[in-house]
Amino acid sequence: MPRKIEFDPQAAVTDAMGVFWEKGYVGTSYDDLVAGTGVSRASLYKAFGDKKAIYLKVLDRYKTETMQPFLKVLSAEGASIAELISFLKDLKQYFESQDSLSRGCLFCNSNIEMAGQDEEITRKLTELLDIQRAGFRNVFVNARLKGELYATDDIERLADTYATTLMGLGVMAKTTLARTIGVNTLNNLISDLESRLSS
């Protein structure tokens, strides 16, 4: 009879996420995952497989527990410019309140390190980017219906621009100087959106 797995797989994925977030995919060894999760090599491999399999589980967890809740306000039915402004203000407040964001954004870090390097990982990262972009697109589709966009605005380009900006902010969050630039960027975006509502 196979031995029963004597650890919490969900907790192990959470711990593995912390290891990958700190060290990156390439910089993380299986020994690091063993140490970070407190699970033996044999048990970890039996439950998940190799390092890449664990990483894919981590990205799935990041999607459901971090990215989707983070973007919920943008993905909601009827979300428009007001909701986007609120989202950006919350993001700005988060930037300003943190003493250290030196780990940056796991999604952004993963894109920089692994996009295009591995087919399965790239496919997973593309899925996460599509979720992010869909949230912004939802906002701008609704904004068009409410008359909140300029006639020259292109919904797809706006969605791309905001998704790219959000990823850039995640990268810039890793240094204090860049965080200052990030806050200025958010202020500019918020001012632009507020002018649309007042015009």
Question: How would you describe the overall organization of this protein?
Answer:
The protein is mainly α and 199 residues long. The chain folds into two domains: 1-57, Arc Repressor Mutant, subunit A; 71-198, Tetracycline Repressor, domain 2. 77% of the residues lie in helices and 0% in strands. It has ten helices and no strands. Helix 1 (9-27) crosses helix 7 (106-114). The mean pLDDT is 91.
Briefly say what this structure is.
The protein has 199 residues and is an all-alpha fold.
Strand and helix map with partners:
Blueprint lengths: L8 H19 L2 H8 L3 H8 L2 H20 L1 H4 L5 H17 L8 H9 L4 H27 L9 H18 L3 H23 L1
Largest sheet composition = none
Ranges where pLDDT stays below 50 over 5 or more residues in a row are none
Terminal CA distance reads 71 Å
The CATH homologous superfamily of the largest domain is named Tetracycline Repressor, domain 2
Sum up the overall morphology in one term: elongated
Extended strand count: 0
What is the H-and-E element order? HHHHHHHHHH
Q: Over the alpha carbons, how many angstroms does the gyration radius reach?
A: 19 Å
CATH topology of the largest domain: Tetracycline Repressor, domain 2
Total count of helical runs of at least 4 residues: 10
Q: Averaging pLDDT over every residue, what do you get?
A: 91
CATH class of the largest domain: Mainly Alpha
Helix content: over 70%
Please tell me the total number of domains: 2
Query: Strand content of the residues, in percent?
Result: under 5%
Content-based structural category: mainly alpha
CATH architecture descriptor text of the largest domain: Orthogonal Bundle
